[in-house]
Amino acid sequence: MRIRNNNAVVAKVSLLVVLLLVGLTVLGCYGTKTSPEGGSGGTVADGTLFLAPSVKAAGGGFSCTPAAVDGKLVALSAADGTRFWEVPLEGSRSSGGFGCSSTATPAAIYGSPAVAGDLVYVGGYNGKIYAINIASGAVRWVYPREGNLEPIIGGMVVAMDRVYFGCSDGKVYALDAGTGDKQWEVPLGDKIWATPAVSGETLYIGCFDKKLYALSAADGTERWEFVAEGAIVSTPLVYNDTVYIGSFDRNFYALDAASGHLKWQLPAEKWFWTKAVAYNGTIYAGCFDGKVYALGAENGQELAAIDLGSAVYSWPVLFDGRVIVATEEGEIYAIDAASNQGTLLSDIGEVVYAPLSAEGGVIYVYSQEQNLYALNADSGANLWNLTIK
Prior knowledge:
The protein is built from one helix and 34 strands. With 389 residues, the chain is mostly beta strands.
């Protein structure tokens, strides 16, 4: 495996995130950033890949320059990339904070689409949730019907006939999956960028207030909260009655799913952003320090720290006893779960932030250059690729 000095890469990613945080949380100009880039990954269901192309807004720096971006959801054939349909999601106008004039809020999509039944669901940076028919691309419903919420950064999860998501307004929402009617909303302590996870009848979600919350999926009642030392924006993994979550405090935590009590924690050199995956009693957690940590699920024993030489931002996927991971620099590695050894599968040479997706022995990688790659999961061969704008 090629091992490289990753300090510069990690510093670059850290700076990008810090600028993003400053642009969104300090200046309050939700419609502008230096160069907002969609981090949405593709979601594959029944041979169709649903993807929200990354977009870059106009306007520069922190000058509150209006930036209008119209995002869209695209449905593609997972076999060859043939485009079935696309649905434009228009932006809206909103007033800026801290003296900013009225700005255009982009409909860029940062969270990956969620599919359930005959609908695909996406949340926009414009503060809207869309439910779209997977066959025709017709919009079934939009929430809210009138007006907008604050920007929606994370993705959503569909369970118990409801759509759950967190919002930058600091609230968790539950909508009826069929109609879009609001079932409940619960305010937390700060902005929410994380995608929630639902296990059984409990919803788990992280927040900028440095807490992980466990809520009743039925009515939003709080069951417990765990306090970390940094913001939590990653998506929880629930595995064998344990919740695994990384934080901006450079720790990876294992918590009892029923009580929230700390089981163990792993300190690292940099932030944890990506969702972890579990396989055969081992947790795999990617980190901004360029390593994927293989940890014993029960006791947190470090089985391996696989150094990939570049920050891990993208969500990994499991395939045939291997963990497939993309680095920020566009190298795709396959980590053998039996040996915890990583092998370079492919190198697309482009920045990758978006989560990976997989189906039928094919790994789908979407880069910040707006190129979609379909790679053979065994050999890494490029089956096809195309630009999605």
